[in-house]
Write a structure and sequence with these properties.
With 236 residues, the protein is mainly alpha-helical. The protein contains ten helices and three strands, in the order αβααββααααααα. It folds into two domains: 81 residues, Orthogonal Bundle (Arc Repressor Mutant, subunit A), CATH 1.10.10; 143 residues, GntR ligand-binding domain-like (Four Helix Bundle (Hemerythrin (Met), subunit A)). It starts with a helix and ends in a 13-residue tail after the last helix.
Length: 236
């Protein structure tokens, strides 16, 4: 019986990890946001222990960080770190887009088109939902590329940049996000023509656009970084 309880506990910890990681991927937290374990446990409907274990796992992966003894925060991410992440993503997602252009089926192409249309609609109504759909678009492209190692690396990079993607979909004017000139449409055109080089250039143009803005905001946050008060250093 004790073994069954242990397995159940491990499942709770794994579930909490997946939920929190998904929230980071989708930009449901903001850069520098403080997370309280007790509050997260309440939202997830579980006890504190599985959430604490999930958080420490995310800390070990660099997705969260501990400040001032026990205060858990979403990383603000230095401009330098974001620049490095974007450099890696430019190369890997460019390769994935080129590969996808040679493998994509008509059904898969239409799936991407539908995701982009949903994104356009969400951009004017819900920045959070727009962020989720944007990630789904990029990750579906990675799946189509059939490059699992590349996909794994890129996904880990998204975990750390996800909070800045929330800022992106909040701060960028709706007219730019919902425009028919959105860079995803250039990518879709390249995929429709099965043109690897055009697909590579299109996804890289998209990443450069978003990356430049996020790096700019990171620099602004660094120059105005607040000092955490002593009274705010307990985590529960």
């Amino acid at each position: 019986m004790s073994e069954l309880e242990r397995i159940d506990h491990e499942n709770l910890s794994a579930k909490a990890y997946r939920e929190l990681r998904s929230a980071l991927l989708d930009g449901r937290f903001t850069p520098g946001q403080r997370l309280r374990i007790s509050a997260l446990a309440g939202l997830l409907g579980t006890s504190i222990t599985p959430v604490r274990e999930a958080i420490f796992r995310l800390v070990s992966e660099g997705a969260l960080e501990i400040k001032a003894a026990t205060a858990i925060h979403v990383p603000s991410n230095s401009a330098k770190r974001l620049e490095e992440a974007m450099t890696i993503r430019l190369h890997l997602e460019g390769e994935a887009a080129a590969a996808a252009a040679t493998k994509i089926s008509r059904r898969q192409y239409l799936e991407l088109c539908a995701l982009q249309e949903d994104f356009i609609e969400a951009a004017a109504q819900s920045p959070e939902q727009a962020g989720v759909l944007n990630r789904q678009f990029h990750f579906r492209l990675l799946e189509i590329s059939d490059m699992p190692m590349t996909t794994s690396i890129v996904e880990n990079l998204w975990v750390t940049s996800g909070p800045f993607m929330r800022l992106f979909h909040t701060r960028v004017p709706v007219r730019d996000l919902a425009s028919r000139d959105h860079k995803h449409f250039n990518l879709l055109a390249a995929l429709d023509k099965r043109d690897p080089e055009a697909a590579r250039k299109a996804i890289q143009a998209d990443l450069k656009w978003g990356g430049a803005l996020m790096i700019k905001w990171a620099k602004e946050m660094e120059s105005a970084a607040p000092v955490i008060p002593e009274a705010d250093r307990d985590n529960d």
